[in-house]
Design a protein that fits this description.
Number of domains: 1
Radius of gyration: 19 Å
Shape: globular
CATH topology: TIM Barrel
Strand order of the largest sheet: 7-8-9-6-5-4-3-2-1-10-11-12
Number of helices: 11
Distance between the termini: 22 Å
Helix content: 25-40%
CATH architecture: Alpha-Beta Barrel
Oligomer: single chain
CATH class: Alpha Beta
Number of strands: 12
Length: about 325
């Protein structure tokens, strides 16, 4: 489908749970309220949404959470979605803690790509950021995912000036492994409202001081708005997702489905288009019309640069950011 701004919307991010086994402060801080399982969409309901969305032109699905692998049967759901006519790609974002135990099942299900969240390679700092001593587990998961043949990316959010040096260790993952290390600017949602994060413009300047031969990479690495660079001698690439200092709304191709069944056209705004009641009590045509409405009324751009205009009040884990 084409939205009111003329963009082709062919990508849907689906949160399958609001639960997580980590407590990253910018995503799921302590004290966050979780909903009951009765409020979460079943896998059959998610499948139905995907079937109807595919009929409207959605081709690519990203499975997110919370942490998707804490929900039993995640790989089974991926296999179900992969078999839907019109769906060409299914990928997943995970914190990596449970990834190695599930990697074989995910590959068998046909998963096309894995994004692994990892903000530091320092064990003590990782525990401070996440509340869990799992840094080495995730590092091993990154290597295992890359070696499995599934396209693998590492997502990093630098939350403050104190994190500016973390990139030096993190980009070495791309030196020897076929993984893309991507730096995502902290967005003013949830905890992010309290912190300006690190500018990717400044970060790229810092990287250039150490790697002056870094060059922009024009190859397509995925479905999102990342801008990629290549460092000579590196196996993988370096990416930047710059919502704050490189506004990419004119090319946005996605909508989001929360774990409780609300379609979100944009992270910045609290506007949602509920599907859960329609899935449980309505008709397929009503569901189809609601999906169309969400796409057609997708905002032309976010307003992160105007904090007072942001209407989204939930934490990232609650909206499947």
């Amino acid at each position: 489908m084409i939205d009111a701004a003329g963009r082709v919307i062919d990508y849907m991010r689906i949160s399958i749970t609001d639960r997580c086994n980590l407590r990253c402060r910018y995503c799921m801080p302590d004290g966050i309220t979780q909903v009951s399982m009765a409020e979460i969409l079943t896998y059959e309901e998610i499948r139905k949404v995907c079937i109807l969305a595919a009929e409207l032109g959605i081709q690519k699905i990203k499975i997110t959470g919370g942490e998707p692998l804490v929900r039993k049967g995640c790989a089974d759901l991926i296999g179900m979605i992969k078999n839907i006519s019109g769906i060409t790609q299914v990928t997943m974002t995970t914190n990596g803690v449970l990834l190695q135990d599930n990697l074989e099942a995910l590959k068998k299900a046909g998963l096309d790509g894995i994004n692994i969240s990892l903000d530091t390679l320092d064990r003590e700092k990782y525990q401070e950021l996440t509340g869990t001593d799992a840094c080495e587990t995730v590092r091993q998961a990154v290597a295992a995912a890359a070696e499995s043949g599934i396209r693998t990316k590492v997502n990093t959010v630098l939350q403050s000036d104190g994190d500016k040096t973390e990139w030096k260790a993190l980009i070495t993952l791309a030196e020897s492994l076929p993984v893309d290390v991507r730096f995502i600017e902290l967005m003013p949602i949830g905890y992010g409202k309290e912190n300006t994060g690190v500018s990717n413009l400044e970060l790229l300047d810092e990287i250039r001081k150490v790697y002056p031969d870094i060059r922009k990479d024009s190859k397509i690495h995925g479905n999102g708005p990342a801008v990629y660079y290549q460092i000579p001698g590196f196996t993988g690439g370096i990416g930047f997702i710059s919502a704050m200092h490189g506004k990419f709304c004119k090319n946005c191709n996605r909508i989001r489905l929360t774990s409780t069944g609300d379609l979100k056209p944009c992270l910045c705004y609290g506007d949602t288009y509920p599907l859960k009641d329609l899935l449980r009590n309505g008709t397929e045509e009503e569901i189809r019309k609601q999906i169309k409405r969400a796409i057609e009324q997708k905002p032309a751009a976010h307003c992160f640069e105007e904090p007072g205009a942001i209407t989204e009040a939930h934490q990232m884990a609650q909206i499947g950011g």
